[in-house]
Each structure stands twice: as structure tokens, then as C-alpha cells.
Amino acid sequence: QVQLVESGGGSVQAGGSLRLSCTASINIVAIKIMGWYRQAPGKQRELVATVTSNGGTNYADSVKDRFTIFRENIKNTVWMQMNSLKPEDTAVYYCNAVQFLANKQYWGQGTQVTVSS
């Protein structure tokens, strides 16, 4: 079982920045993909960004050039820097991890991000 602990959410005005972190309870070299998803009220959960074990990244079109995801293996942590935030970025953000072992998937508890106009 892998626990994912998120932090860094909060409230910010449009144009501001936040940095989310997700720390795993295991060495993340055992994790194939780590990423962030978000879910706004009344909407489905959607992918925001992912990073693979070799550093490859993938972003939703809506956040490209504004968000940056990166892994810090020595701290078992994935970060996501969010710049130029928009009200439509308001959502609960969830950390996700997929292990190499049997592709087991885990979720964090979620952290709220609120962007006011």
C-alpha cells in the first residue's frame, strides 16, 4: 500500500501562483508514473499533468506553458508549480501514482485550489 500526502493548495487571485507537493510513503523509483488530476464541482476528474520515472512529462492543453511538474526522487516527492492561475483552475487537485508492480494505482486525499477573479 502506498500513501500519498498532498500539500500546497489554497486560495489565490487570478494571475497568482501556487506550488503543490505530493510525497509518497515509498521510494518513488518504484513508481512508474506520478501525476496530478483535478475535479471541479459538477465535473469529471481530469488529468492535469504527469511525469514518468525517466522524467517524461505530459500536460493537459489547458495548463501547458503555465504549469510545470517535476519529480524529486531523493525526497520521494512530486511537485507541480502553477503559474498564471485562472478562475477555471479552481478544483480539488489529486495526486496519483502508478507503480511498476502490477500497475497498481493510488490516490491522495486531494487538496483544494481556489482562484478568484
Task: Give a structural overview.
The termini are far apart. The radius of gyration is 13 Å and the shape is globular. Strand 7 and strand 8 (77-82) form a beta hairpin. Strands 2, 4, 5, 6, 9, 10 and 11 form a seven-stranded mixed beta sheet that branches. It has a four-stranded antiparallel beta sheet with strand order 1-3-8-7, with no helix packed on it. It has strands spanning 4-7, 10-13, 18-24, 31-39, 46-52, 57-59, 67-72, 77-82, 91-99, 105-107, 111-116. With 117 residues, the protein is mostly beta strands. The mean pLDDT is 96. It is built from no helices and eleven strands.
Q: Which terms summarize this structure?
A:
117 residues, mainly beta, seven-stranded mixed beta sheet, globular
Q: TL;DR?
A:
With 117 residues, the protein is mainly beta.
Order of helices and strands: EEEEEEEEEEE
Based on CA atoms alone, the radius of gyration comes out at 13 Å
Mean pLDDT: 96
Shape: globular
Low-pLDDT residue intervals, each spanning 5 or more residues:
none
Query: For the terminal residues, how far apart are their CA atoms?
Result: 40 Å
- Give the number of DSSP strands: 11
Estimated structural class: mainly beta
The percentage helix is: under 10%
Largest sheet: 7 strands, mixed
Give me the number of helical elements. 0
